[in-house]
Amino acid sequence: MNALAATNRNFKLAARLLGLDSKLEKSLLIPFREIKVECTIPKDDGTLVSYVGFRVQHDNARGPMKGGIRYHPEVDPDEVNALAQLMTWKTAVANIPYGGAKGGIGCNPGELSISELERLTRVFTQKIHDLIGIHTDVPAPDMGTNPQTMAWILDEYSKFHGYSPAVVTGKPIDLGGSLGRDAATGRGVLFATEALLNDHGKSVTGQRFVIQGFGNVGSWAAQLIHEAGGKVVAVSDISGAIKDKNGIDIPALLRHVKEHRGVKGFGGANAIESSSILTEDCDILIPAALGGVINRENANDIKAKFIIEAANHPTDPEADEILSKKGVVILPDIFANSGGVTVSYFEWVQNIQGLYVG
Ligand SMILES: NC(=O)C1=CN([C@@H]2O[C@H](COP(=O)(O)OP(=O)(O)OC[C@H]3O[C@@H](n4cnc5c(N)ncnc54)[C@H](OP(=O)(O)O)[C@@H]3O)[C@@H](O)[C@H]2O)C=CC1
Ligand SMILES: O=C(O)CCC(=O)C(=O)O
User: Fold this and answer.
1) Residues 131 and 229 in one domain
2) Is 171 inside any structural domain?
3) The total number of structural domains that make up the chain
4) 176 φ, ψ to 5°?
5) Who has the most CB within 10 Å: 76, 170, 180, 239?
6) Domain carrying residue 117
7) Tell me: the pLDDT tens digits for 14-64?
């Protein structure tokens, strides 16, 4: 099922459970605005290349629209629409005064040089600058983007509108970013996991975790879970997957990833097939990469008793049904990964007040 169909289906189920008025249900499914722009840049060798960028602004009933910008080859209008809608529900669940939006560019950031990424980000910002703003729509990092990307957006936006640090969150600290934003989504994943386990009379200590994705969210979650006494027994990223049933030495893995730009080749664990990561034996599975990875093809083989959705919409509705019949408890994305946007809110509040604690 595609991302938007899955997100709409979940929303309709929730609307029915809430007894939501049918007109309200219909209007909440329709995004406020969908933006599509061509971003043409010269590559470092002088050839011209064109990418398609999107920003979907889903809803602003509760405040400025808020959500990340993703650079990934699979970015398409359906995916961005689904992610924008999820941001509306997420900011409401976290009870912060925002609506929802999401953006992205269909590109492979790993194949672009730093200067190509900068040119692409600046052209994208030139095309959307009059549709984002500190009280209208506030972007942040997502997959394939980071504080540097936010710094380029801030700089380009400020050329048109004057210095406006509150136009993006997840910025470098020196530009008004918030201490802790980098770790916030992973830290929120730990807090959410602790609360869920507590409800089941358990704690993180000694639980066996498998984590798919070792970028911002996955690596911070791994580090904090390791520090809290959890045992991370397998992790994967695009380079490969590794496993150690006695628990991976996460600080050593972080050093390896910094040097080699991936988990592949880490000497302290065994290499396994990336395709088997979600079905590895564990107590708690944390998908922290792409959407739709848990689906009817693999749901029956999942061994975890708990799934913490650190990624956005990692579980397809068909898999939801299979897993619920198996008694697997799933902590939904709009709660489990809301720590990032919560700290983004504090960053934005500091910026609009001109408050800087250096
Ligand atoms: N950043 C944030 O604050 C928030 C992020 N999220 C969600 O969390 C998820 C991860 O985002 P984030 O950590 O920021 O992104 P990053 O780009 O920092 O990291 C993504 C990670 O996923 C890996 N990856 C990509 N494709 C695959 C694959 N097919 N199999 C295994 N691993 C893969 C990447 O590998 P490699 O590095 O080798 O390419 C990387 O390790 C996304 O769903 C995002 O929407 C949700 C809330 C907030
Ligand atoms: O920090 C933010 O504003 C948005 C984070 C995000 O994109 C997400 O929660 O999926």
Assistant:
1) no
2) no
3) 2
4) 100, 15
5) 170
6) 30-165
7) 999 999 999 999 999 999 999 999 999 999 999 999 999 999 999 999 999
Q: Are residues 334 and 209 in the same domain?
A: yes
- Write the pLDDT tens digit of every residue in 329-345: 999 999 999 999 999 99
Burial class (CB in 10 A: 0-12, 13-18, 19+), 352: middle
**102 annotated active-site:** yes
Length of the chain in residues, anyone? 358
For residue 338, which amino acid is it? Answer: S
5 in any annotated domain: no
Distance CA 123, CA 42 (A): 11
Alpha helices in 102-180 (DSSP H): 114-128, 147-161
Q: Give CA–CA dist 245/264, Å, rounded.
A: 17
Quote the CA–CA distance of 254 and 256 in Å, as a whole number.
Answer: 5
What is the H or E stretch that residue 86 is in?
helix 77-93
- The answer to whether residue 7 sits within a structural domain is no
Beta carbons of 52 and 39 less than 8 angstroms apart: yes
pLDDT digit string (tens) for 240-272?
Answer: 999 999 999 999 999 999 999 999 999 988 999
Which ligand number lies closest to the CA of residue 186? 1
303 in a known ligand binding site: no
* Residue 43 · residue 92 · CB < 8 Å: no
Q: What are the pocket residues of ligand 2 if the criterion is a CB atom closer than 6 Å to any ligand atom? A: 66-68, 90, 140, 142, 169-170, 312, 337, 340-341, 344
